[in-house]
Amino acid sequence: MFNRLRRSAVVLTVSAVSLGTISAGVFIGSPGAGAAGSAPGVTAKSITIGATVPLSGLAVSYAEVSAAAAAVFSYVNHKGGINGRKINYIRKDDCYNINAAGCTANVGATPTLTQTQTLVTQNNVFAEVGSLGTAAQDSVLAYLNQNKVPDLFVNSGSSDWNQPKKYSALFGFQPSYRAESKIFAAWIKKNKSGATVGTIGQGDDFGANGLAGLLAGGLTIASANQLTYNPANLLNPTALQAELVQDLTVLKTNNVAVVVLDSIPPITQAILEIAHQLSFTPQWVISSVGSDPLSVATPLEVGAITMNYFPSTATTSNTWNAWLKKVIRTAPNASTIFPNYFTGANAGVLDANMQYGAGFAVAFCEALKSLGKNVTRAGFLKAMTTVKFSTPSLVPLSYTKGQHQGLQGGSIATVVANSVPTSPPQYATLVGNAEYTTGDFANTGIVTNKQKVTPIPSWLK
Amino acid sequence: MKRLLLLRTSYPTSSRLVATVVLAVLGVAITFTLTALDDSKLAGGAAIAIVIVGLSWLIGWSGQVSLGNSGYMAIGAYATAIWANHHTTTPIIFTLLLATACGAVGGLILALPSTRLRGPYLAGMTLAFSFAIAPLALNFPSLTGGSGGLFLNFLSAPTWFVNLFSGSQALIRANAQWTADVAIVVTAVAFFFMANLFHSRTGRAMRLVRDNDVAAELAGVNLQRTRTLAFAISAAYAGLGGSLLTLLTGSVTPQTYSLPLSILLLTLMVLGGIGTLSGAVIGGLIYSYSDNLVSLINKTTGINPTSTFGANLKGIVFGVLLILTMLLAPRGLVGMGSRLTSLVRRAARES
Amino acid sequence: MGSFLTSRFITYLLGGISSGVVIALVALSLVIIWKSTHVLNFAQGAMGMFAAFVGMNLVFKGTNYWLCVLLSLAVGLALGGVTERVLIRPLYGKPEINPIVVMVGFLGVIESAIPSIWHSNLLPVPTPFSQVYYQNNGHTILISPFVIFQVVLALGIMGGVALLFQYTNLGLKMRAAALAPEVSRLLGVRVNRLLTLGWILSSGVGAMAGVIVSSGQSLAATNMDGIFVSAFIAAAVGGLESPVGAITGGLLIGVTESFILGYWSSNMAPLAGVIVLVISLAIRPQGIFTRNVTRRV
Lengths: 461, 351, 297
Hints:
heterotrimer; B: mainly alpha; two-stranded antiparallel sheet; globular; C: mainly alpha; 2 strands; 2% strand
């Protein structure tokens, strides 16, 4: 017995000694990545940035957004980069943080967190640029903040990215769901005054904020007509069907004439189909998040109202559109990444996803350029609030110390039929007006302005 | 003489204690040599190992097949998130104990209708239970954050720990390693208690109830109480594991702990070795490094990881491994290991 | 009459029946396997979906819908037989957890193999029956030609299985082989072959359930996961030995889910199975439809 105790003591001592040696070796010989004081991911010739985006899985229709951003960065690199630095944009597949339904990334149960950790610890990114998804990005806010990694131009309309006091290195890009809904409410009050309004929203932040914006915009919606669908049912089509049939039957029974949808494209499609099966034909008002006609892909969407914050893709005179077409055509592997642009009924047509990706990529380049040779994280964050952005969007893009949301409005658009009858519809914009605010949408009203057109910077052409 | 006798009766526990401390120290030492990413993976694996050992206790030792342990993980996870968001300054240990207690209570509740059930009916009951967690979470959104779930701050390394590191990645490395070290220590403590349980009278009673419950009853063992205790302990461990995972990932949603996770736990437990401590550790390690393993397979066989086949390779490999293990080596890697050592010993003796 | 058919209660009832028959079908297939081999087939849903994928994918390419259905059925039958011979046969006599785990592994393999073979396609499978619901004075009756087809097909299959077991020689032999294998062997019944036949039959039923679920919806490997859980619970409620019990359980759970969805909230719908199970097991732990069985000590 004493032998055994002595043996344990020996083992313990040996372990303590080895721990001491290993730790000493690690600390004394500590490598320290990069030269002292330089920003992570930045060298004299390159800057590395990353994003966690759905490259597969049920939100794969959004993959094109970051692909377009990557195309812009390739174009810029081809012209020599920004101040001599090439932009290295790493996109990691996080499947919208849902590891199922066709996800082809090997990422375990928390895809966004895993991929974010990889970007931060292995790829040593300077910042995240254009990561996508409300729930996905919510799950890594604390991690990025803890490790002081800037999170720029988050692709989502949630207001979670607009918390400058708590998260000073976090910035959104698109208008908030509330802002969009206020604009919808104004349109409905003007064009469908007196009609009964109902909503079907995703049962999370997205739907809740959409509804709140409609009510804040002055609409009256009976609580029986405020419906949701459970986002967990995205993986359970039978349950989803049952739920949507239920929701639409209620709306039909209550003689709802205008239905506002806060849903992602596959759900928008399902809702339109089921309404058709129930012979229910209200005026559809669809959030920009879920209305892209090429993603929703059903002729049943014709006539729906939505909001755009980029110019109509059919407009040929717009110089940004022409420039973007050039960028897409010359992108590496363009025909594999953008198949619908090169073949099919909508060949040669830009879609909203491409404009979105290009929009924030251009903004990133402008902020980076303003820093000159010396690039630091602190400097970049300051540039975000001081640079006057030239942007393809209809409304101005600006950030201040107290506002990190980004675009603050858009323009009402209607979905029109394609000239090829069996193909998915396309957008058109109502002429003229953009609605936006320069203040905080929660407190200020909507201001109607002419659509903004800022010229393309010469160094970008 | 009396002192020696006293030492002798507490010997097994004290030697287990020493072994635990040694292994924990070794584990912590290893985290110093790993990259930040591997440290995070190891931390996740440690949390899963805790849940697996609890499941092993329930299925291996008391013979009750449960598919609902992900539900207890969810209970522990939500308890942790709710508490951490209201009381940000409690020491970690208190939060972990709270989650463990909540898990145990959950186990007791499920045990009420379940201990009378055998075989498939029990499996069905536990399956239904694991399905009840998400709806309950969704129906009390003010408490549970609804479908978006709850977020909490990650375990941050204390300043004295961060100062041990230098270089521009110091903060990141320190945070990743701190979480791994905390996870290892908690796992070591949990395994210590389970090791004692295995060799206690309770453990023997469990096995008797599993193998021949009529004989057990005749021998004076209270069936209901024994089975209920098994549920409660297994649920407590699952709650602890879920709590640790929540602290590691900073979030919990209704979808995080669901049926696929229950199935994964079952798989890892079987692969490691059902009813054993080392089997649970192996299961945890497989969880941590399964992606690395699959990348290795991709590299050596030349399969493209983003092709549809390559992306689903992990699921196929796991499924096939599980089937082969059950058909050929039902006692898992640990069983194969002990068979191998006894073969070697026999060969050595005969030569 | 018109307003009765379009009332909320009837609408929910109709919805529950159309989803309940599918659950009942899968529950029936689980009971067939249990009665013949005392195994709980966790991969039942996935096997059915695999068969559905093979057949129904061809509908997109223009093949006749009914031919595709027959193809799915054939694949289902074959898959059942192969699974029993290769995976289950070696496990007879081993602890009851072994086949459960093996089938769980098989479930994982199938659900990973499906997306690796077929490219993900979010379009719904076209069916020869319209999915537009009937209208009465502008109100919807939740019946469409497709729903009628669904229910008729499911009832037909259940009826066919019942006829097989009750009135044919083969059915008699299968029941004997399950109840008393040793005695049956002495009487010249080829027990092993009949056990395989049980699996073949069950898998065919599962394939038809997969076909029904996937028609008019997009094909996804996980389409049957939720249904499998409900079917499992339905079978347990009905008592795993009783086909009639499984069917009743399936309909009961389908209708309960629909009522919870309608009168309470969609979030709570998965609780339907839990509620029904807890109540029924509290009343009669061995299943509502089983006869009393004594245990040998």
